[in-house]
Amino acid sequence: MKFKNAVMFASVITGLNVLVQTGFSMAGLFSPASILPAGVVANDAAFTFALYAVARTLPLALFVAFVIWKKYIRMLIVLGILSAAIQFADMWIGIYQLDVGKSVGPFVLGCLQSYAIWMLHKAHRQLLQPIGK
Questions:
Q1: Structure pTM?
Q2: What is the DSSP-derived secondary structure letter of residue 40?
Q3: How far is CA 21 from the centre of its chain?
Q4: Residues 64-83, mean pLDDT to the nearest whole number
Q5: Quick one: residue 68, left, alpha or beta (phi over 0 = left, psi -120 to 50 = alpha)?
Q6: What average pLDDT does the chain have?
Q7: From CA 126, how far away is CA 51, in angstroms rounded?
Q8: Does 133 reside within a domain?
C-alpha cells in the first residue's frame, strides 16, 4: 500500500474507532441500561462508571482528531495502537458478560485497527528507507 493511502486508511479507521468508543461511553451516560448486562438495574454507580468511560474516551477522540488534522504519523501509530488495545480490552468485558455482540464487535474493530496501523507503520518504514535498500 502506498504511503498516502496507508495514512488515509489508518486515519479513517482510527477516527471511526474512537468515535465508536466515545459513542458507547456517551450511551452509558444517557441510557446506562443499554450498556449493562440484561437484568442489571442502572444506579448511581453505573452513571459514575459511565463518567469515567467518557473521561477516558473523549480526550482520546480529541487527540486523534488533532493528530489526523496535523498529519502526525508517528503519533497516529501510537494512538492507533492504544485504540486497538482498548478495543481488545472491551472484548474481554463482553466475554466476561457472556455477550456475543459486546465480544465480536470490539474484536473486529481491534483487528481492523491493528491492520490499519500495521499497514501505516510498514509504509512509513519503506518511505524512510534510503534508496537502493
A1: 0.86
A2: P
A3: 6
A4: 96
A5: alpha
A6: 90
A7: 42
A8: no
Residue 88 lies in a domain: yes
Give the cell for residue 18: 474512537
Which of 14, 46, 6 has its CA nearest to residue 29? Answer: 46
Query: SS3 for 97?
Result: coil
Alpha-carbon distance of 28 to 54, in angstroms, equals 9
Domain extent for 78: 3-128
List the one residue out of 24, 15, 8, 16 whose CA is nearest residue 119. 8
| Radius of gyration of the CA atoms of the chain, in A | 17
Distance CA 31, CA 89 (A): 22
Q: Per the structure, how many domains does the chain have? A: 1
Mean pLDDT within 8-34: 91
For residue 101, being part of any structural domain is answered with yes
Q: Which residues contact 71 (CB under 8 A, 6 or more apart)?
A: 7
C-alpha cell at 10: 489508518
